[in-house]
Amino acid sequence: MISFIISLLALIIGYLIYGRFVERVFGPDNRPTPSVSMADGVDYITLPNWKVFMIQFLNIAGTGPIFGAIMGAWYGPASYLWIVFGCIFAGAVHDYFGGMLSVRHGGANLPELVGTYLGGRARKVMLLFSVILLMMVGVVFVYSPALILKDYVGSTFIWVIAIFAYYVLATMLPIDKIIGKFYPIFAFALLFMAVALMVVLFVKMPAIPEIWSKLDAANLNHPQSILGTESFFEKNSLFPCLFITIACGAISGFHGTQSPLMARCLGSEKMGRPIFYGSMITEGIVALIWATVSSYFFYYGGWREVVDANVVDQFMAQVGSDNGKSLIQFFSAPNVVENVCSGWLGIFGGILAVFGVVAAPITSGDTAFRSARLIIAEALHLEQKSVIKRFYIALPMFLAAIALLFWQMENPDGFNIIWQWFGWSNQTLAVFTLWTVTVYLVIRKKAFVISLIPALFMTAVCSTYIFISNQALALNHTLAYVLGMGCMGMAALWFFIWYYKQTKK
């Protein structure tokens, strides 16, 4: 628990000290924000600061800091380091500047910001890249809650239709009608669940791996030792897979598509730090809590404590009969959430877990489609005050999403394929945003190093993943690392050549 406490304090101190430094680098002032100067009653509406924070937090969080942290906990305490350093020095910087640049550019979407600072070609790439990513988010977050809900009533198909109907309404209606009213409630539930688990952690003070611990999965009751299959760590090397697996909670490109939604509702630039930087730190705390709970769950037999003994025996009996597939499902992120919440928080916790793993992805999906609508509208120069203009964009967008969804449902491994490529494209989106911020800071003659270092690091992560992943080129690890570092070196060379020319001007 010492590592958890230190990491928790580090995130809080990071917000208070480094967050204020980042704010000073940007320099917010008292100029009118887009919600005032461009108010349209649909997307540009000034909302109370607390409500903007709660919506921003839920928009960027969803189940990301929960599921990602649970899967990242398989790597042990290394997940703590990535959550803390990634969140403070990369993710929160990414979110703050992404949101504040949107405020300064009239609520502009991410592709427009990229085009402004990286050029027209980059804007076109980002336009296509962003819309595809947002479509994948919407599709993934339709299917996963439908699978859970059908266990209680109805069928997967019925729930898919119901969730899609809600998406259409949430995408078409003004932001204060559904999102502004219900999202703060969902965000509160997500925060309450995390705080309740943190209280239980401090009460129980369970034995968990520390950052300095030497982990041996075979001797720590790790599920991998029970499965007896190929080592998880051999199939998914820590670098770069950990940095793709834990996105929300450390750094996530998806946030760059969501921040402009709240940039259009912000009443004052000076609220940017608590809303954009602060919501990312809050998400990091949620991820840290789940990484800690999962470390105990995985490494010290915690799963035997929170799960009914009969259920454990039932799954253990199937390990040999189906090559461990049932046990792998048993240790999946949704099952970990449900088992931990019901085991530690009782019936109420179980209900809250179901609510969280259903409501959170749905809210991420509808804001993804809303962001896609606004990005397309901005590219086509279509005003969005008119309902019919919104419908022009929404209809083909949802038809394309339905086609992708049915492909996923027909393909046995469709969900995993979409999810893995979503993870990579999500972090690649963050790379574009960080380079955009870096160029902005150079032009403004500000401390560009605060975004340059994470931009170079994430460039190495995303390029190495393409070379090493079994879903992509699947090259030899050593060769993949060399090529990944080469891509980072080329990016650094490109930047410093441009920087030299810029300073000569």
From TrEMBL:
Its main location: membrane. It is found in: Cell membrane. It is a multi-pass membrane protein. The chain crosses the membrane at residues 6-22, 52-74, 80-97, 125-146, 152-170, 182-203, 237-254, 275-299, 344-363, 391-409, 421-443, 448-468, 480-500. Residues 4-141, 155-462 form the CstA N-terminal domain. GO terms for biological process: cellular response to starvation. InterPro entries: CstA, CstA_N. Keywords: Cell membrane, Membrane, Transmembrane, Transmembrane helix. Pfam families: CstA. The keyword Transmembrane helix applies. GO terms for cellular component: plasma membrane. Belongs to the peptide transporter carbon starvation (CstA) (TC 2.A.114) family. This is Carbon starvation protein CstA. The lineage of its organism: Bacteria, Pseudomonadati, Bacteroidota, Bacteroidia, Bacteroidales.
